[in-house]
Input
Amino acid sequence: MAAKTLIIDGKAVSAEEGATVLQVARDNNVAIPTLCHLEGVYDVGACRLCLVEVAGSTKLQPACTTKISEGMNIQTNSDRLRKYRRLTLELLFAERNHVCAVCVSNGHCELQTLAYSLGLDHVRYDYVFPKWKVDVTHRLFGMDHNRCILCTRCVRVCWHIEGAGTKNVAGRGATARIISDLDQPWGDSESCTECGKCVMACPTGALFHKGATAGEMEHDRDKLEFIVNAREKQQWLP
Output
């Protein structure tokens, strides 16, 4: 592929044609926050935290799905972007019931880490306090919709890494939620292979191992990336 030259935060860099802004930024040690991005699965631009400014456009562009082009001039950490990212995080916290102190992923949560990094010590919006149930019908795992941010990582790994197609999204707006099969209890799912990849992929404490207590859940996402890379390189073929 042809190489493209562009500017990120005032620094000239080059990358192969077809790469995304996020890929190029990370290859050049430029940090862009994300929640829905997960190495090894395709991007959907759901969380909007990776928005960047591109010279010549009045619209903010998601770095994870925006392909680079010759001569692009990109800003990744302007005052405008920091304002939007903080707003996005505040809305995520206000929309559901995130109580970090009693969460299984306390200390290992990407949402919590981003909040710390942006100095989010309060939320300016009214909390919705929805009444979401916790599904613990599965013999190994649980789903706490109160802590779900609808990043769809679990859906994408279930469909495109495990190939089971158990997880999906139902509803719209504030009523949207992750479901199993035809919106039945997870424990009644006939398609679930109990692989645990959805739990590995979750950035918060929404998906957890049953029996885990506050602060115990760590997500080993390196396993997912290893599986994808091994398949692409055909390492498991005889």
Notes: The two ends are 30 Å apart (CA to CA).
